[in-house]
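Practice problem: predict the structure.
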Amino acid sequence: MSRLDKKRLTRRQIMRLGLVGGGAAVLAACQPKVVEVEKVVKETVEVEKLVRETVEVEKEVTKVVEKVVEAEPLQKEVHNYLGMHQPTDWTTRTAEHPTVCNAPRILASKFEQLNPDIKIVWEEGPGGEDLLTWLSAGAAANTAPDITWASHNWGPQNGWALAIDDYLDQPNPYAPAYKSWRESFFPAYMESLVQPDGHEYCAPLNAIWPNLEVGLAYNKEVLDEMGLEAPGTWSEEMAVAKALKESGGGFAPWYPEAASGNFWPLALQILPSMMQPILPEMDLNDDKFIGIEECLPAFKKGLVGPTTPIYKRAWEEMFLMASYWIDGFNTTDHDLLWREGNLGLRYVGSWDFARMANDPNITFARGFLPPPLPNASDMPPADGKPGAVDPPQMTAGDGTVPAELVKAVQGAETVAMEGSMKARGNVAETMNWWQFLTEPENNSFLTNENQQRISSCKDAALGPIWNEISRFKLPLYDYGVAWWGQGLYWDNENFNTWRKIAVSYVLGEMDLDTFYDRQQQEWEEASARYEQILKEQQEKS
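Answer:
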């Protein structure tokens, strides 16, 4: 083979060389793109590594979150408006604020520590006559407080309140010494809280001392200067009132309602004694306590009413007392007169005893009394009209609460608003908090901070003011009667209207016949409204 032949390449070899040469050229041309691919691959690997690390971090975060959730579960709120037990913005007693409510906050904090899944929320209610309007709006929108001071029987009467019979039947987990939640309260109190539909709606936060819903405060120095004693009987009270009036001194009605009608003596002192002979006939359920549902048939039968002999005599006695009130009783600043030492005797809400006792602006010695009920010698029959009767016995006055006399004279004041709780899904939580508030030691702590009332729990301790009050002997009648059981509160409209009519008569703006006609008309219209409410309640139950 020639050298040429030796150098001759086969076609395959030529093609292979061409491919190699061309491939080298191609590779040379694509070199930048290869670098980019390597960069992308490298970055992708880094991203994947970062993703793996993120996933691991997320797993660790999830574990931490689960532990936090386990330790601090999602809270449900319980909204509150507790009236006289509502926390105050101020935390210390001053001349401007002689009463202070810190106890509710302290109890709420303790409760939240025991129940971290529940948060206690305080709502600002208007109080007074605006309270009904506020609660009505909240009930309609299901935004009312879950547990609220509703004043009187507004909650059950308007169909807002949750019936709690079943809860009261069960033990209170915070008071295991009692077989049931109900058992921790004064028995007579709970019996008087049963509503006309047979249900219970109230586990009371406090109790009114018997015959002391509105009491008497007196200036010891004024009475001493006049040679007068603090009144212990109805006759003595009238004598002191007359002497103060004649001296130009002061005897004043309960100041918040002096202009709109202050006739608490009628309901709390005069009528309970005078009505005793007719109360057995009125007591339809044999519980020795007369409520509004028993007053309705009694009114229809003519046993009670503004023009009946008992009520006419009671009104006469009330008007005689009103003649001894200070001049300008309906326009005068009673608190100013009191602080200046110009009132010798005055009616005040018993919950105001604490405010008056702690008022640093007052320097004179003062005392507080249960208003005496008239007996047969105080108010004998006159002009063919009946008089008062003597009580079968008196309480011991030995420093204990006369438990048999503790009644719901203002109805189901503290209730749970059914619509609001169901909307918030916190019925169980609300009941839990309510039970905590009514554990005897907690309840004593709550009520004794200001001593506006006593505890509703039968074994709770009394504060100093009530320890003193407990030394007074009180008449113990066979039958108790609330002022709405006397027909003096058919509904809120009626309550406000009849009092204004009475003030108009006292001020000489109408004659006696017109007064009785107006009262009778008001009773008829108001009792008809209540009868309709009662019918609706019975149909619902």
